[in-house]
Every structure is written in C-alpha cells, then in structure tokens.
Specification:
The protein has 379 residues and is of the alpha/beta class. It contains 13 helices and 13 strands.
Length: 379
C-alpha cells in the first residue's frame, strides 16, 4: 500500500518588531515549536532591525527585514508582495494591525489565506475617542480568520464568532528550571539578610497602561507599618524615572525598582505574590505573560479585574481580582497573604495547575497548527 505523501504548509509570519513584548515572545515560542514540524515551513518578515529575541538567529530561519523609510512608505506593499511571490506561502499570519494592512494586496492578488492575529488586548474605552479601538474595528473584518489571545479581546473588537479563534498564550515551562539560588537573589537585591521577608513584585512596562501609582501608594503604606514586607518592581519604559522618584527616599531600600532584567524567572521565583495592576482608563489586558509567569512559579496573583485577566485569575482560587485604582484592596489582599502562608501556597499551587492545563507552550503550538490545517481545508 502506497504511503500518503504529507502536504507541506508554508507560512509567512509578518510582525512589526521583535522587541521585548507579549506577542513578540508568543511568536518566538511558536516558531521554536514549529522547528519540529516536518510538514510546516515558514519564513519571517519583521519591520524593525531591533530584535530582542536573538535566539531566532540560531534556528536557521530566513528573516526578511522590511523597514519603512517613512510612516506612510507605500513601497512596503510592493516589497511584501515580492517576498510572497518568491516564498509562495499558503498562509500569511499577521501579528498586528499595521502588518494586516500591508498584507492586504498580497492576500487578494495571490489568493492565499490571511490570519489576522492583531487581538492581544481588550480595549477599555470602546468608542470613537479611542483611536486604537477604532483602528482595530476597521482592521478586524480583513482576513480569513481572526486569532485573539483572550475571549474578552475578541468580543471587544467585535470579531465575528464564526471566523474567530481564541488561542491562549503558551509558556515554555522549561524556562522555570535551573534558576538562580533564591537566597543569592534576595541578597543581591536587598543587600541584607533577607530571611523572613515577604516579597511582593510586579513585572510590567512602566507605561501609562500599567497602574504603578496605585502600587506605590499601597507599598508605601505597607512597608511603613510592617518591616517584613518588601516590593520589587521590574521593567522599563517612559514612566520609569517618574515612578522611581515617587518612592520616598527613606523607603527606597524597601521598594526597589530594578529596571529591565534578563533573569526575570529567577527574580519572580523570590516573590511571595505577583501583582499586575492595569490602568483601565487607557488599557484593557489580553492575557498577561507576567501573570502566567507568576503562576508557573506557584505564586498567588493579585490583579486588576477586567479583560482577559478574568480568564486566567479566578478570584479566591488561584489569586485575587481587585478593582481599579484601589490601593486599599491591594493592601488588604497582601495582608491576607502575609498572615496565611498555607493559603498563599494553595493559591500558588492552583495557579501552576492552570498553567499546565491551559497555558503550556505545547498546547498553544498545537492549537495554532490545528487552526492552520483547518483553514486550508476550507479552501
């Protein structure tokens, strides 16, 4: 009996940049997983020379750099079309709204399938006054299928249920093995005997979409009355100096801003709770990689309710959801965890179980692969 010849699926990934970020990491992890798929070939088009995830250069991936000379560089349409004509993809997978726009002529003229993967957040202001939401609403109809990383995000942009798929972020759990010795990390950060401390931490960009102001108010109050509590804030961004300067000088050894770090996993490993506060006036979360990282390391989570966060943090089961701008609620939840280590451990255990069940990189990769094959079967 003759063997059935496997059909090779050719995918062209198209993304604005590969700087440090959620969708950029998700694409990088997906490409790593696809290395082992013999029936899938892919190339990458990126619109920036800045690449944070440099491991891609070790994977023998063909990378096309499509750099705009101006914001409205029309030559990008022609250059991308030429790349498609040469590679002959079955599927163009765009990861942001701008790349969807640049891919439209190639999609129509070459009659390939277009995956619109721009849904990575849940806009909190769904009105004509939110330019990001309006642009998203205009772009969503284009493509053969829309992929979002949260159900809340897909609903917020009005993606048609029949042509939309929710695929949660995947985390490579091997990242959380062979970490630095926790005692050594504590000594490095606190510069003191760190035994008996309760460490609350937040890993997020210092930008308007994150609510560091509420965190600093709560942290200032807590460390003033309880000498056991410490806060670690990790990340960079345009608001970093402003937030750092808002910490009272006498408390800067207890509320520590580390800036950008490459050893995130080892730092989160010394947290007793992981925090993600969102400025809901300007942003709604999709699925936060920071929250998944906290849970992968068995840390109870405290996060602002709303958007995709409600799909990963189950209140009182693997962490706590709190209202926006509520330093009182944040303080209350931290005080509960400080006073009940067994409860904290149980919440962290449930978080790890959720990651293994829903957010493992293998689960994410399989869902993408299944979606690609199902899309082509409809041809």
């Amino acid at each position: 009996m003759a063997k059935t010849k496997s059909i090779i699926v050719r995918i062209l990934f198209f993304i604005d940049s590969l700087t440090a970020g959620g969708k950029e990491r998700r694409l990088t992890q997906l490409m790593r997983s696809l290395q082992n798929e013999k029936d899938i070939q892919f190339e990458l088009v990126v619109m920036s020379n800045s690449v944070h995830y440099k491991e891609i250069f070790d994977w023998n991936i063909k990378v096309h750099y499509l750099i705009r000379k101006t914001k409205k560089d029309r030559s990008v349409f022609r250059k991308f079309y030429h790349i498609c004509k040469t590679f002959k993809p079955d599927i163009i997978h765009c990861w942001d709204s701008m790349t969807v726009v640049y891919a439209l002529p190639a999609w129509k003229l070459l009659k390939v399938k277009l995956v619109n993967g721009m849904v990575v957040d849940t806009p909190s202001r769904q009105s004509i006054f939110n330019k990001h939401w309006v642009r998203g609403k205009l772009i969503i109809p284009f493509g053969d299928i829309v992929i979002g990383n949260s159900r809340a995000g897909l609903a917020a942009y009005g993606a048609a249920p029949k042509k939309s798929v929710c695929i949660y972020n995947g985390m490579d759990l091997a990242r959380f093995q062979q970490l630095k010795e926790p005692a050594a990390v504590r000594r490095e950060i606190f510069g003191e005997s760190a035994e008996g401390l309760f460490v609350a931490g937040m890993v997020a960009a210092f930008e308007d979409r994150k609510d560091y102001k509420t965190l600093i108010r709560a942290a200032t109050s807590l460390v003033t009355v309880n000498d056991r509590i410490r806060f670690i804030l990790v990340g960079g961004g345009v608001n970093f100096d402003e937030i750092k300067n808002s910490v009272p000088p006498l408390l800067q050894r207890k509320i520590i801003l580390l800036g950008k770090r490459s050893d995130i996993e080892s730092i989160v490993n010394i947290f007793d709770t992981g925090i993600l506060l969102t400025n809901t006036k300007v942003h709604g979360e999709g699925i936060s990689n920071s929250i998944i990282e906290y849970m992968a390391l068995r840390k109870p989570v405290i996060a602002t309710r709303g958007g995709g966060t409600n799909e990963v943090v189950i209140d009182n089961e693997n962490g706590y959801l709190i209202d926006a701008d509520s330093d009182d609620q944040l303080k209350q939840k931290i005080e509960i965890l400080v006073g009940n280590k067994d409860l904290a451990n149980e919440l962290g255990k449930k978080g790890r179980q959720m990651v293994e069940k829903k957010f493992d990189i293998k689960i994410m990769a399989k869902k993408y692969i299944d979606t690609y094959h199902q899309l082509l079967k409809k041809s």
